Amino acid sequence: MSISRRLMLLGAGSAALLAGLPWAVGIGAPVQISAERRVIDVRGRAAGVSGLRQLDGTHGARFAAGSRFQVALTNRLPEPTLIHWHGLRPPVEQDGVPGVSQPLLPPGGAHGYDFALRESGTYWMHAHHGLQEQTLLAAPLIVEDGEGRDEQEVVLMLHDFSFRDPAEIFASLTSSGMQPAGAAGGHAGHGQAAAGVPHLNDVEFDAYLANDRTLADPEVVTVERGGQVRLRIINGASSTNFWIELGALVGELIAVDGRPVHPVMGSRFGLAMSQRIDLRLRLPSPGVFPLLAVREGDRRATGLVLRTPGAPVARLEENLAEAAPALFALEEERLRALNPLAERPADRRLTIALTEAEAAYGWGMGGEVAGAMREYEIAAGERVEIVFENRTGMSHPMHLHGHAFQVMEMNGRRFAGAVRDTVLVPHQGRVTIAFDADNPGAWMAHCHNLYHMAAGMMALLRYS
Ligand code: C2O
Ligand code: CU
Hints:
Elements: H1 3-10, H2 14-17, E1 31-42, E2 45-54, E3 61-64, E4 68-75, E5 83-86, E6 110-116, E7 121-127, E8 138-144, E9 152-161, H3 166-175, E10 207-210, E11 220-222, E12 228-235, E13 242-245, E14 251-256, E15 259-266, E16 268-271, E17 276-282, E18 288-295, E19 301-307, H4 330-333, E20 348-356, E21 363-365, E22 374-377, E23 383-390, E24 396-400, E25 405-410, E26 413-414, E27 419-420, E28 422-425, E29 430-436, E30 441-447, H5 450-454, E31 458-463
Parallel strand pairs: 1-4, 3-8, 9-12, 11-19, 20-23, 22-31
Antiparallel strand pairs: 1-2, 4-6, 5-7, 7-8, 9-10, 12-17, 13-16, 13-18, 14-15, 14-17, 18-19, 20-21, 23-29, 24-28, 24-30, 25-26, 25-27, 25-29, 30-31
Copper (II) ion (CU) binds next to loops.
């Protein structure tokens, strides 16, 4: 296809695309993804949300490992946006962080992306601007390993949903006098943030969604009895950690954040904000098998249903009998990467404190709070260890852009854990991660709780 023909097909945003048209010399046509408004049904009520769709309506995108990430992103929203490819390791100028990697895309604007996909796995894409992620401006991003297993793939993306404007949610957090958990008085309206007990949820949501649906009207997937299923679960919630409950099924955890681990069998797995797990399972008998995601510290659940052909699906209860516990660090300590980092002493060790403001809803990293972002200089080629020292009363899902890191230490216990891109740092806990500085640029490290990030819990790592 000629470049001009390709541009014609790209339509409205093609002029802007000329600026970033890396695939002009490349191979295939790019996958076209639009950031756009859409309407979903939540409890019988129309909800205006956002999404990331291809021309044929497919939400998100799929690629083959070893191929290139060739995407033409068009902004069809009435406001500027930019999309981050969470978990991928692109060159920094394609990372989708406004002001760090590239400017915001104005309404009607478009931009081309083209970089090598280094690893297969379960990733996702989401807005990295303001509070847009809360409007469901997020979608699955799957990189297939191409091994052609005889298994049925089911992607399950989780969200927390509110009919309120995210700006209003944030304003109520910052202005209601609500205090971070460790501060005197604890969270107004939440109470019980007693010493030693973590505070769990900042925001009360109207619904928890699995593939955009509530448990009252869940997606039902038919699976052959005895057939193998590969479940890719993505926690795309802005401010919610979940427990994945398989009920009567036993699953094999085979990957976290897209990277393979030594398999762990279980029926319950923790999944912090922005993390992913891949589970392999079989339906042992004919019947109906709900897969639930239960909010940590709460009874509320969402999920979808697997069933064998013809099995009738009864209505599911959205509120469980008992509240799920908090996610805990032991989960992480069980994980071992299938492809760990090469053993090597650290060349640099950064200790980054996670802090909360005394009297307001303010979260910080490395001593800075909202309004300032601490920058850390590292050097190319180094093995870097970061010690996240959590001095707050909440756990924080800490994410590093542009790299995969290995979890090396949890609360003083050293082990060679999973390779991943987001780790939950327990309240008052310490977690050490290690990575190789092999992708020069300025990279964000931040808490993936959207409101914590908005309130200052972010930093920048820089090297050239
Ligand atoms: Cu999911 Cu800064 O990213
Ligand atoms: Cu946080």
